[in-house]
Amino acid sequence: MNATLQDRLKTLHLPAFREGFEETARRAVQETLSYEQYLLELTNSECDERRTRRIERMLRESHLPLEKTLSSYDLKRLPTKVSRQIRTLLEGGFVDRRENILAFGNSGSGKTHLLCALGQELIRQHERPVYFSPCSLLVQELLAGKRDLKLSRVLKRLSKFDVVIIDDIGYVQQSRDEMEVLFTLLAERYERGSVMLTSNLPFSKWDSIFKDPLTTAAAIDRLVHHSVILEVNLPSYRLESAKKSKAAVLES
Length: 252
Description:
Rossmann fold; 2 domains
């Protein structure tokens, strides 16, 4: 009978049931669990297993650097206002409201790490699909789509993610074609999905990204309309780490 049951559970794609039904049955006898309690335990195991696999798949598809976690970020470095904002953002409500998260700060201040950590928590805690890309690579992907007459296909794929994280938008010196596809993405996601981005440039210098003042104003308008702005104006984390390492060497 067990072999038949194993086969049926395999056919029904219930791996946690198949792996645990015998052990759970023995425990049910020992603890005099009802049929309903026995079935509930197996069902809970199956749901937990499926959730774990789903989160693992979403993390792979996100392209997030998984080493950039919330636990590895020194939250004590953040200004009090930003710390409060992060606690609220971790609840995930901004995704339902299609709000954008815009993180500004000096190079090395940890804004990329912060948004990547937030993206991971959105997946792990709330199972929200997230996609991460450096701005330069994302622009090239969009540009290739436009060249191959497949831009709509690329945009449709990105629309399946509740959140798109665009890293280091300030470093990109766009050609007109590159600027146009980036603006197309921002316009496509306006009030349809959240954008999280990092930049070392204030809005007043975004003409260097989009070249055209009207396009710059339109892009900023779409991003800011529903947004939370994080001012991560901190000393360079990498520079601080280098100084500490050098001091440790000198002391030794």
